[in-house]
From TrEMBL:
<feature type="domain" description="Metallo-beta-lactamase">
    <location>
        <begin position="9"/>
        <end position="201"/>
    </location>
</feature>
<dbReference type="InterPro" id="IPR036866">
    <property type="entry name" value="RibonucZ/Hydroxyglut_hydro"/>
</dbReference>
<dbReference type="InterPro" id="IPR022877">
    <property type="entry name" value="UPF0173"/>
</dbReference>
<dbReference type="Pfam" id="PF13483">
    <property type="entry name" value="Lactamase_B_3"/>
</dbReference>
<dbReference type="InterPro" id="IPR001279">
    <property type="entry name" value="Metallo-B-lactamas"/>
</dbReference>
<protein>
    <recommendedName>
        <fullName>UPF0173 metal-dependent hydrolase ACFSBW_09100</fullName>
    </recommendedName>
</protein>
<dbReference type="InterPro" id="IPR050114">
    <property type="entry name" value="UPF0173_UPF0282_UlaG_hydrolase"/>
</dbReference>
<keyword id="KW-0378">Hydrolase</keyword>
<dbReference type="GO" id="GO:0016787">
    <property type="term" value="F:hydrolase activity"/>
</dbReference>
<comment type="similarity">
    <text>Belongs to the UPF0173 family.</text>
</comment>
């Protein structure tokens, strides 16, 4: 199967697995994209890592998609954002989404939803998206992408995600302040043992402005064999 990755800035990714389209964390108010949410075709599935505004701001624009998120985010989105079809899942679970298999993994972060209703977001998450269901047996034919969500560096990347889910490519937050910065994100890439690495969650607003070349240099300094790719906004990469 073909897996295509398109970065729309910040943590917003469009992932195509054969004939299935998935959109992650829609937030188009960022300087890396020229697109308005209305320019983007509604995907089959909308995945939300957590409830912060810079990850769910444009979710209502895609309410015709099937939502995939924690039960807490699903409850909020169905009550407040217009979603009807949804798959509530939790950390460690895998669900089949058309031609894709989506596994929810841990992210070390916070997860409040800033509304007057005081919704809880549950645990923040990342997603591992592949064209086969993960098993303990290594599948050389599978293609898998890891979206780390908003997270700090955590040994689960080395001990679980990299070791058993075996992503071929990973998008990691690099902007510092709210997530990992360049050097920790580079260590994450090394621990994940991926072939391709992409930065995200940077240069959107002042606290997360960095020199992206610092991350590229740090990845190489770890001795990782991963190829760092700094995509332009709305650029597509095929695995």
């Amino acid at each position: 199967m073909t897996v295509e990755l398109t970065w729309h800035g910040h943590s917003t990714w469009h992932v195509s697995v054969d004939d299935t389209d998935l959109l992650i964390d829609p937030f188009f108010d960022n300087p890396h994209t020229d697109l308005d949410p209305s320019d983007v075709e509604t995907p089959d599935y909308l995945l939300l890592t957590h409830g912060h505004a810079d990850h769910i701001a444009h979710a209502p624009e895609f309410s015709d998609a099937t939502l995939v998120a924690t039960p807490e985010i699903v409850s909020y989105a169905q009550a407040e954002l217009g979603f009807e079809d949804a798959i509530g899942m939790n950390l460690g679970g895998t669900v089949e989404c058309g031609d894709a298999f989506v596994t929810m993994v841990r992210a070390d972060h916070t997860n409040g939803i800033n509304t007057e209703h005081e919704y809880e977001g549950g645990m923040p998450a990342g997603f591992v998206i592949g064209d086969t269901k993960p098993t303990q047996a290594t599948d050389e034919e599978s293609t898998t992408f890891y979206h780390a969500g908003d997270t700090s560096l955590m040994t689960e990347m080395r001990e679980v995600t990299g070791a058993y889910l075996e992503p071929d490519a990973a998008a990691v937050p690099v902007g510092d302040h709210f997530t990992m910065g360049p050097w920790q994100a580079a260590v994450a890439v090394d621990w994940l043992d991926v072939d391709h690495a992409f930065p995200m969650h940077y240069d959107t607003f002042p606290p997360v402005e960095i020199e992206i070349d610092d991350w590229v240099r740090e990845v190489k300094a770890t001795g990782s064999t991963a190829e760092p790719h700094v995509l332009e906004g709305d650029e597509t990469f095929e695995l």
